[in-house]
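Possible regression after last week's pipeline update?

I re-ran a chain I had predicted before the update to compare outputs. Posting the input and the new output here so someone can diff against the archived version. Not blocking, just want to make sure nothing changed silently.
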Amino acid sequence: MNNTNRPWDAYISDRDQGVFDAAGFGANAGLGDRPVLLIIDVSYAFCGDKREPILDSVKRWKLSCGEAAWDALPVIRRLIDAAHMKGLPVIYTTGYARDDKWDRGSWTWKNPRGEGSQDTSVLSPPPNRDGNDIMDEIAPGPQDIVVWKQKPSGFHEAPLQSYLQLLKADSLIVAGTTTSGCVRATAVDAFSKNYRVAVVEDACFDRADVSHAVSLLDLHAKYADVVKSNDMLAFIEGLENDLFDLPRGS
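New output (post-update):
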């Protein structure tokens, strides 16, 4: 498993790297002929409404990943633009909840700070965006698809799988947040459904550097190819145009 210039370099020991290499983990699986770009949860809840240090951002948006989100946004935008140019499907996921937050269920067990994704009592002026709104910088176009979900995986009790079947997709290019949470859960579920999976390392982000890096390490070892955005852009450029029958939009 080649770990040259990888996000996990600072965290993996020589002993652990040797185990991966000896056991054969981390081979490049490659993508198929009909990949879909999947953008996981890049919303105001996880990015905040402006670029600021994470400890400032989480005072107002408790799920925010701070500046890491704003570093990834232009990379995600380039992937979306490249997919649009080729006619590849772009599917976004985001969350939803009742106004009274009753249906957040188990989310409240591990994070007792309020029931929602933001503390509106300290916002001045009050926000004009719901935390689940997808960021304007990467907003879906009319031909794009949005999947609403309530748990980490985009496949859990959401129509993602049926849309992929409708598109006759064979692989997923995954970007978004958080690397250790919803990105990882979705990538593992995609692998479990026998899709080929690539995770774009600089198009994913997390609130903790170690969580981001070690999750990418595990994903690359067992479930997905973790690739840099420049390599993924080159792959997309090499695909045929207009492989899919996309929604017409309005």
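Follow-up from reviewer: compared with the archived run. The chain has one domain: 34-237. Marking as no regression found.
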